[in-house]
Amino acid sequence: MKPASFDYFRPSTVEEAFQVLSQSGDDGKLIAGGQSLIPIMNMRLSAPSCLIDINGLKELSYIRADDEWIRIGALTRQREVERSALIREKSPLLTEAVPFIGHMQTRNRGTVGGSVVHADPTAELPLSLLALNGRVVIASADEKREVELSDFFITYLTTDIMPHEMLTEVKIPVAAVPMGFSFQEYSRRHGDFALVAAACVIDTDLEGRISAARLVLGGVDAVPILAEEAMDALIGETLTESLLDKAGDLACMNVDPEGDLHATREYRRHLAGVFAKRAIMAAYEKATGKGG
């Protein structure tokens, strides 16, 4: 199938984009990479009357850091994140996670902002950015606001962003850059959507006790899930096999996946525990200097 007819606009400034957004109301859609929107339109699952091509807004494509934040512009291509020396140094979890996104051609076009706003619960960037305690900057013609990613994802493919607004930046606190990190994913083939994914960051003290941990699971609910009970069980402890089993059990007990033609509900829940444990172990080994 092909998409329904639509009007096409290509603003050259952010101000022009806001103007078109305001005029189009609920019928307008922003497009940059189009890796998710175009297939949905082709299947007539979405039929916007107006497409607003923001590829000309070059000021929204950047990766930079200051004393407090790692800042990634919404139009930054996923491949740029994958290859960035700054990201490799300051936020290596993203360097590990991004290669799981589709194929290189997908990452050449797909944008950071597009992935976060699309909010697929199995997508690699939302999981990783939530594990890093990130936040998003959302702007409109009248105001700018910041939202924690833990509050941004509402339900399946739905976020806290209004039709007249645009995500302009993703921010990662520099203080959240962990010593240990891991991204784990299971899919039928490389490049397919993940059945289940896990992102974990861990810090430890000199004795190997876990001082901070964040574990996020994808593919197990309508939004990426922060596994708080599993995290709480890890804090203040040295990782042992029994503690790892406990954290994995807590992680899979507190998810609510749906079954589909790719995997049953029970199988996704089982995978949640398995990949939570793998992510925790790999992150802990890096934090303690035992892993690569």
TrEMBL record:
It comes from the Bacteria. GO terms for molecular function: FAD binding; oxidoreductase activity. Keywords: FAD, Flavoprotein, Oxidoreductase. InterPro entries: CO_DH_flav_C, CO_DH_flav_C_dom_sf, Diverse_Substr_Oxidored, FAD-bd_PCMH, FAD-bd_PCMH-like_sf, FAD-bd_PCMH_sub1, FAD-bd_PCMH_sub2, Mopterin_DH_FAD-bd. Pfam families: CO_deh_flav_C (PF03450), FAD_binding_5 (PF00941). Residues 1-177 form the FAD-binding PCMH-type domain. This is Molybdopterin dehydrogenase. It comes from Paenibacillus abyssi. The lineage of its organism: Bacteria, Bacillati, Bacillota, Bacilli, Bacillales.
